[in-house]
């Protein structure tokens, strides 16, 4: 089936753009390659649009596969009519397709099956017609001790079972009920009696109701988790009276007689026993998918921001993985991240070898010409930072804290074991901390994205969908920045367009056997790296100081001849074009437009000539936490502190303020204006100023605000509202554990604000 027009309509683009993109994808092209180097073919579709087309065509093709299987099944049963075939071919969603197939779907032995075996289907047909009949006399005809029909009621019950199944298999009715469940359904959450103490973190959901249609992702996933952990009971249905009313309008013919009464009973039985459980399952799957998509979107955006964090660059770095009892693991790294030295120092309690530790650091700084010191932000991090800063090191040396989330995952990974088989886990962790400062992207790709700690409910969402989204995000970030082929790890190369693990390893092996690559063309000598892989990968790979100047840029080798023609027309060299703005300004782009190259590609080339191989990431800036504020005990309400955003969720942002416990800036406190999406205001790794609103040491919770004057507003009623009104907004702040309104109310009572 041709889906180009359908997808084009959904995306608001032209069908030929979709068709061209699908052809490229089917030919093995990657999303980054298509969006970067095939702009004329797709009509300048961006990465998001290309990825959406890829995912949508996969969905529609899966729908077609199911359609074919259903047609084959019904045909084999000898029941495929032209009308039925037309209905199946016209179904545009999997739900509609399955509704049509339901009457023909092989079934387990049901109540209706048993009733049919007892010969009660003719009675069911008679009753379902809803004509005036002598019901008892008709039912009496079906008495049959050998078929276990021993009374009028047993005969009528069997007939109702068959009618209930017919009603359940009514496709138009199912569609109306599906809409009702979505439009008017209510999530109702209750605590399981006797588990109030165990389930305290789900306190907000002990007696909670809200419309299914508007329930945000984080609350849906929180309630489902509470149900899974056997702390909550969760229901997701509309009002039963509304449901039965729709069913009766659809099924009853308006007659007032005993047959209609029986059909009414069958309708109620159908709803409670068949249709309601089926619809509830569908709705729960639908809302779960919707919640998953939102949670995955948030996770992917956070990951992108973290991956694209500002790199320090190629510097000699000392990295310290702090600790008290076991000491601080210290490593010295060369400009390419190579390990030069490692040892342990013990500047803190209980050993408190302060003088020796200080002498060690000073000696290593001088010996290895250290330009920056990276200190992990875990246990003893702030104390170690204060110690190092107190050593009187040269002011030119950067001393900064580094988020070590995921470093322990890396240190125990196969990647780390292969690189440092003889080193302790903590030494490997220190290496990761140092390299993360130098180039966050190159180091973080070695860690499973799920372990980086920038998502919400990542263990509750669809794991395949999460992996695919995060892999897309990493690939986009890696190819957006570009990769230096002579220094990149296998893990980094794996995410380059067209490569993957096998070719990445082959590149590393070839590099080790033959020395550094001197040109992009040399990549063709790598085993199994054919023309297609070269086409997809070459533009994203950089070779510094290569013979051909464009090998260090994002200009694709397929356009080298074009750039050389530009240079020749100006009686200059390619290198001249790259170094002279005056020459570049003389290039008349329209003179180089052809059937395969348009202005979008030409403009990209001109930008690359101006800044070849430029890093799109921001420049590194040193950040410092507030001195003297090292633990939650040091916090006071009203304090204004510098912090770094570590995670963004649907309900706000978490900020590291240097006390080993991130604080929450709720959505309502991200700005002095209304904020719908936290990403409008903050990004992961962003440096912010926050005000302390609440400190709960026992529960390890810190409430923060980014408002100019967070205590100025009037606090509303702090009691969380439970509502069935779809227009009402629940007064909730975060995942289970208390609302910001609750916290503000308490604070203002205490401090008279």
UniProtKB/TrEMBL annotation:
Residues 638-707 form the S1 motif domain. Residues 711-720 have a biased composition (Basic and acidic residues). GO terms for molecular function: mRNA binding; structural constituent of ribosome. Pfam families: HHH_3 (PF12836), HHH_9 (PF17674), S1 (PF00575), Tex_central_region (PF22706), Tex_N (PF09371), Tex_YqgF (PF16921). Residues 711-741 are annotated as: Disordered. InterPro entries: HHH_9, NA-bd_OB-fold, Ribos_protein_bS1-like, RNaseH-like_sf, RuvA_2-like, S1_domain, S1_Tex, Tex-like_central_region. GO terms for cellular component: cytoplasm. GO terms for biological process: nucleobase-containing compound metabolic process; translation. It comes from the Bacteria. This is S1 motif domain-containing protein. It comes from Algoriphagus boseongensis.
């Amino acid at each position: 089936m041709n889906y180009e027009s359908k997808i084009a309509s959904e995306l608001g683009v032209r069908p030929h753009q979709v068709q061209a993109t699908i052809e490229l994808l089917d030919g093995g092209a990657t999303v980054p390659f298509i969006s970067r180097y095939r702009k004329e073919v797709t009509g300048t579709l961006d990465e998001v649009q290309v990825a959406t087309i890829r995912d949508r065509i996969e969905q529609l093709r899966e729908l077609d596969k199911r359609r074919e299987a259903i047609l084959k099944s019904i045909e084999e049963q000898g029941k495929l009519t032209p009308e039925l075939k037309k209905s199946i071919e016209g179904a545009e969603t999997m739900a509609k397709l399955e509704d049509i197939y339901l009457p023909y779907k092989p079934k387990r032995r049901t109540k209706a099956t048993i009733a049919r075996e007892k010969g009660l289907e003719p009675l069911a047909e008679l009753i379902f017609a809803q004509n005036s009949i002598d019901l008892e006399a008709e039912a009496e005809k079906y008495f049959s001790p050998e078929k276990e029909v021993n009374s009028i009621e047993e005969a009528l019950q069997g007939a109702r079972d068959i009618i209930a199944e017919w009603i359940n298999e009514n496709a138009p009715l199912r569609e109306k009920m599906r809409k009702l469940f979505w439009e008017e359904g209510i999530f109702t959450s209750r605590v399981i009696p006797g588990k109030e103490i165990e389930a305290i973190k789900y306190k907000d959901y002990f007696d909670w109701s809200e419309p299914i249609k508007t329930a945000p992702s984080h609350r849906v996933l929180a309630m489902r988790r509470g149900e899974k952990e056997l702390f909550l009971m969760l229901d997701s249905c509309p009002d039963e009276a509304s449901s039965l009313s729709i069913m009766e309008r659809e099924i009853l013919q308006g007659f007032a007689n005993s047959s209609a009464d029986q059909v009414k009973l069958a309708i109620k039985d159908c709803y409670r026993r068949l249709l309601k459980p089926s619809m509830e399952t569908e709705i729960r799957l639908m809302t779960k998918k919707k919640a998953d998509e939102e949670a995955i979107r948030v996770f992917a955006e956070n990951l992108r921001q973290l991956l694209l964090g500002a790199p320090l660059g190629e510097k000699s770095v000392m990295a310290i993985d702090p600790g008290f009892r076991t000491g601080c693991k210290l490593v010295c790294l060369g400009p390419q991240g190579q390990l030069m030295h490692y040892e342990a120092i013990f500047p803190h309690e209980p050993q408190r070898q302060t003088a020796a530790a200080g002498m060690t650091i000073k000696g290593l700084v001088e010996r290895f010409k250290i330009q920056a010191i990276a200190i992990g932000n875990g246990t003893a991090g702030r104390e170690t930072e204060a110690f190092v800063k107190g050593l009187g090191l040269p002011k030119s040396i950067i001393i900064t804290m580094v988020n070590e989330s995921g470093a322990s995952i890396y240190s125990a990974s196969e990647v780390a074991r292969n690189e440092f088989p003889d080193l302790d886990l903590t030494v490997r962790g220190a290496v990761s901390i140092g390299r993360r400062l130098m180039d966050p992207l190159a180091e973080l790709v070695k860690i499973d994205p799920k372990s980086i700690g920038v998502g919400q409910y990542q263990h509750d969402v669809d794991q395949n969908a999460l992996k695919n989204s995060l892999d897309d995000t990493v690939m986009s970030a890696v190819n957006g920045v570009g990769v230096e082929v002579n220094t990149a790890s296998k893990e980094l190369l794996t995410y380059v367009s067209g490569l993957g693990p096998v070719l990445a390893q082959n590149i590393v092996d070839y590099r080790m056997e033959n020395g550094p690559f001197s040109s992009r063309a040399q990549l063709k000598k790598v085993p199994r790296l054919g023309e297609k892989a070269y086409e997809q990968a070459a533009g994203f790979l950089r070779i510094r100081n290569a013979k051909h100047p464009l090998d260090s840029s994002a200009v694709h080798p397929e356009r080298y001849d074009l750039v050389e023609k530009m240079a020749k027309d100006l009686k200059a060299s390619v290198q001249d074009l790259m170094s002279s703005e005056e020459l570049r300004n003389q290039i008349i782009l329209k003179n180089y437009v052809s059937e395969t190259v348009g202005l979008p590609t030409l403009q990209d080339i001109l930008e690359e000539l101006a800044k070849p191989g430029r890093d799109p990431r921001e420049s590194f800036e040193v950040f410092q936490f507030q001195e003297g504020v090292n633990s939650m005990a040091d916090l006071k309400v009203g304090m204004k502190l510098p912090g770094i955003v570590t995670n963004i969720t649907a309900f706000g942002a978490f900020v590291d303020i240097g006390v080993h416990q991130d604080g929450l800036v709720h959505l309502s406190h991200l700005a002095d204006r209304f904020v719908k999406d936290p990403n409008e205001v903050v990004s992961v790794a962003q440096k912010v100023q926050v005000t302390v609103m609440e400190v709960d040491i026992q529960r390890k919770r810190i409430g923060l605000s980014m408002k100019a004057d967070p205590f100025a507003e009037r606090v509303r009623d702090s009691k969380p509202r439970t509502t069935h009104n779809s227009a009402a907004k629940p007064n909730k702040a975060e995942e289970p554990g208390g609302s910001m309104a609750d916290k503000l109310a308490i604070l203002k009572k205490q401090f008279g604000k």
